[in-house]
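Quiz preparation item.
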């Protein structure tokens, strides 16, 4: 769209380009010959863990001895893989006898955040939730998650300690650059991820 001679307005119904770049030269968007759109600089991440060790507040029989609300300790070096990372700062630190996942938001905007996991309950009538806390790595005796993805509860029957359930979900969340999201669990007495067949995966990307 522009202005012609004499101030007349010219409308263009089609824009023929192969790429859009920042004035500094960074590629923001490309279009291939089939019309497919790619955004190579769009922030996104995905981290998985295949750790199957138990965690919970049953202190005598959990591999990772944790409190009611605390970072998930299953991202140890031998079990984790950073599968995708464009623009995020991803870090791992000691927590609960293992290591936690910390993800720093690179730019202010609306993000899609989610996780995929499967878990075996180790205790009957137990509730477990997983998600994120924002700018917190504390271990607490109470409280809910800042960004919950999924929660499940085993039945009260005596054989419920072998129940297997999916813990998968995603949310839209307005995030601020510099915020640190830490993967958390809430309320596990004793549970373990079925991560060999279905790796415990946390992911996210900038929507806009």
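Solution:
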């Amino acid at each position: 769209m522009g202005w012609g001679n004499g101030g007349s307005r010219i409308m263009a119904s089609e824009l023929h380009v192969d790429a859009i770049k920042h004035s500094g030269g960074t590629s923001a968007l490309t279009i291939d010959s089939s019309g497919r759109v790619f955004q190579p600089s769009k922030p996104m991440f995905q981290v998985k863990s295949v750790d199957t060790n138990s965690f919970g507040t049953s202190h005598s029989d959990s591999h990772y001895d944790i409190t009611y609300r605390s970072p998930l300790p299953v991202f140890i070096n031998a079990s984790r893989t950073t599968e995708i990372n464009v623009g995020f700062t991803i870090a791992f630190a000691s927590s609960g006898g293992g290591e936690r996942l910390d993800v720093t938001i690179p730019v202010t905007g609306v993000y899609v955040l989610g996780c995929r996991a499967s878990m075996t309950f180790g205790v009957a009538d137990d509730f477990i939730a997983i998600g994120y806390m924002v700018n917190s790595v504390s271990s607490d005796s109470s409280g809910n998650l800042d960004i919950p993805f999924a929660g499940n509860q085993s039945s009260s029957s005596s054989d419920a300690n072998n129940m297997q359930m999916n813990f998968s979900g995603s949310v839209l969340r307005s995030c601020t650059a510099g915020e640190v999201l830490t993967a958390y669990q809430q309320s596990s007495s004793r549970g373990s991820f079925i991560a060999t067949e279905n790796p415990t995966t946390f992911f996210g990307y900038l929507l806009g």
